[in-house]
Amino acid sequence: MQQQEDQEGEAQQAVSASTSSSICSLQPLEAAASTAAAVKSVAAGAEAEERRQEAVRTFCVERRARGGTYYRTFTAASYPAVWQLFRHTAPKDLHWYEVIREGRPAHLYFDLEFVPRLNPQVDGEALVDVLLQHVAAQLRRHFDLILDPRFVYELDSSTPNKFSRHLTLRLPGHAFSNNHAMGKFVAQVLAASDSKLLVVRKEQEPGGGGGGPQLGSMVDMAVYSKNRHWRMSRCCKGGKEAVLHPTGRYATAPGAGVSDATVFLDTLVCNVEPHARLLQMPDPLPTAGPNNRGGVGMLGAAALQSGIGGLGSCGLQVTWKQGAIDTALLPDQVAELRRLAEEAVSFIEKVATQRAGAPARARTLAFCGGGAKVAYSMIGPGSHYCENIGRPHTSNHVFFVADFLGGTYTQKCHDPDCAHFRSAWMPLTAELCRLATGAAALPPPSPSASGRSAGTRG
Ligand SMILES: [Zn+2]
Fold first, then answer.
1. How many angstroms is it from 270 CA to the middle of ligand 1?
2. Cα separation, 404 vs 433, whole angstroms
3. 251 pLDDT band (50/70/90 cuts)?
4. Which of 122, 438, 98 is nearest to 234 (CA)?
5. 319 CA from centroid of ligand 1 (Å)
6. What is the DSSP letter of 338?
7. Could you list the residue range(s) of the whole structural domain that residue 101 is in?
């Protein structure tokens, strides 16, 4: 019941967020749709109606105010009409975005970015190629689909300060059922990449603590949350000059003979043909390995529940709960584990923040027993983002478990619906794996901790 109310609250929030910002022509569109639905009943008629509705789409357009600032408006138009406008308008004046509406199908898209200054070792184009190899492998694994290079549209709006590309993957006759499913799929791609995609250094947040820059992926996961505005080809952001244009690779490679109009239409992620097969991801995600018995996770959750009272007045204090301490560990081994666990706080906060696209801080550390596993409860706006549902929970928080023997970490969740969920195990940084390399000093992990060996697989 609570769950349902939460969801409704969220939906309402999303609606008011998308309508309050500006003039909005969504209303007449919805009204027309429901009136039409009432009068059509025969199948053929309904089908024609569906096509008619789909012919008019909602876009977000940034317009320049007198003061020079930009504000967002919404407009409804057909793709051909928008193309005619685009053909006759200079790209520097085009600030159009598709509105990816909640629960609607969309083609697989990626927002890729990193800061070259922080990543002199990263070859962006080569990394896009590696990403697409992993995407192809997961498309085959999950859906038995083959990714042909001709299906891939790559748009670039990089500047010297930022590598920035959009990918649209146009799988013939297929689309994702919604961008929540898409986010799950992309999370699987990253998790299954064996850290080959986690090679990008991100900007340190102010006050982010020590530990040096951490490695992440160049894939922005925030774009799979609901009601996103997705910049269209030929467009730049209001007040900026970097226009999204085809790179001349993949679908637009020399000799491919793809027209400007085709690039425009095929890079629209909401431009899904009415009878496309819609791709879903299983819910909840299958977990890796046979060791998901929940023993360690349950211990972790229990330790967290008991530890949450220790919050300091600033709300960001990290405490060390040792209630579940493993009797197999010697006191100095516990001290070493504790030191590593505290050192990993900035890493955990970084990955939590990156996944959520909003700040998340560690609140409590809890030793879980079972070898060298430590749970991190989280706080902050980004602490609700859960990979299981591909979006933030309204009130429940996620938590992370790091395995300092296995050199991996995973996301779990306090939401009752996610009780049996944990994400794939992801690698910790090399600096945080000292315990693993010096594992000879520790007793062998108890059988309940043997999940670590299976954990490195997605
Ligand atoms: Zn969850």
1. 27
2. 6
3. very high
4. 98
5. 23
6. H
7. 20-279
